[in-house]
Amino acid sequence: MQRSMRIEDNAALDVAIAAGNQLGLPVVVFFSVIPNYPHANLRHYHFMAQGLRDVASEAAERGVGFVLRRHPDGSLERFLEEVNAAMLVGDENPCREPERWRRVLAKKLRIPYWTVDADVVVPSRVFGRTYFLLHHFRPHLKRELPKFLVKPENLKPERVWAPEKRIESYPEAEDITLGFTKLDRSVGPVDTFTGGARAARLRLAEFADRELARYEDKRNRPEVKGTSRLSPYLHFGNIAPVRIALEVNRAVEQGKARASASESYLNELIGWRELSVLFVRHNERYDSWECADPWARRTLEEHAGDLRPRRYSLSELEQGHTYDELWNAAQMEMVRDGWMHNYMRMYWAKKILEWAPNPATAFDWAVVLNDKYELDGRDPNGYAGIAWAIVGKHDRPWFDRPIFGTVRYMSGASTGRKFDSEKYVRQNEALFPL
Ligand SMILES: Cc1cc2nc3c(=O)[nH]c(=O)nc-3n(C[C@H](O)[C@H](O)[C@H](O)COP(=O)(O)OP(=O)(O)OC[C@H]3O[C@@H](n4cnc5c(N)ncnc54)[C@H](O)[C@@H]3O)c2cc1C
Prior knowledge:
Helix content: 40-55%
Strand order of the largest sheet: 1-2
Number of domains: 3
CATH class of the largest domain: Mainly Alpha
Distance between the termini: 44 Å
Mean pLDDT: 97
Radius of gyration: 22 Å
Low-confidence stretches: none
Bound molecules: flavin-adenine dinucleotide
């Protein structure tokens, strides 16, 4: 288990149980905590640890084993030998490092190793390519959805995990970061989100039953928090997108929301999210400005020498020390809560393009801040979102203007008029006074 940190609705686990049942063997879930996961800090580890406690208890209920190990005792290969494994089933993550780990591991293993794309509705291999725009992707997605948007099997193992010898496992209630001296602890846990499958299911029920009906009206109003706020749970694999989509459809069938609300929501959850996964899977330079399409690169290069009337350093941005109080509020929401509203994320990244010395630096700074503070950071959605804002990825050219060229611009005045921005600013006061 790497990305899909859950027991319920886990397609990789279902495959492992189906294979175990065929082979007459039990299944054990193995999770190894490393001290240096790229760009992760205490905030992320804390959320992950909360989720691992649910994994442990739900694995026991399901009759599968759960073994948690930590660096330096976290070798998967050694564990496979220890339990004399017949085969290995893993989940997938299109980001560079985990993808590299899988390839290295696959070369070394002498037992079958299968992976399952368990955190999307339609496995990305079905498309095998990326798309320029969402409306190019939509018809392909629509064609595949009936096959994949189905209730997960949640198979029961025929043989319960009951090893004869003692298998060491780190107690999941203890601090999983103990002794990780190089871990960045400067970004602390947040009390806005509790990690884990249980919290994710509660939040989903609350959203589908009571808030989905108003999603269309409220989703672009950062001051009212009218979105599902499920992104941290999706990032850590605490909940399956299939489950969310099925629950949202159920709410519509039960008359709790109009069909248009679920369409609008699923356009984000499946449309934009899975387009982002395809982008990262098929673009090696997904986290740098070099992922830009030729039109965007050309226009940004043409405007590279434009005067930047305001310039800020990364540290000024990080502390929310700009002249723009709406932008500062968004930055503070992210620093304090580990989450920023989508509408503000778009504005936030576009302003970094305006204030950084050049587009390449703007892209890098946006990635650094997003990955550091967002609980849902270090995710294909984050790289695609930043690419959308800074290099017009999955967008079309707009009117030519300074700095941005034909990449879409968002002005503070018009952004701030679309919702109660004064209220939003009051909600997110400065954390680092000048
Ligand atoms: C500059 C920028 C940075 C972003 N960084 C991240 C990030 O690091 N991690 C992350 O998960 N999302 C990121 N997004 C996408 C989006 O802002 C968040 O997914 C969304 O705000 C999460 O809140 P929610 O769960 O309440 O969304 P909802 O509106 O309730 O949507 C439900 C789910 O759909 C998906 N979704 C929604 N909007 C988008 C989108 N524009 N692109 C792709 N998927 C989407 C998310 O998984 C989300 O949880 C970024 C967007 C931009 C413009």
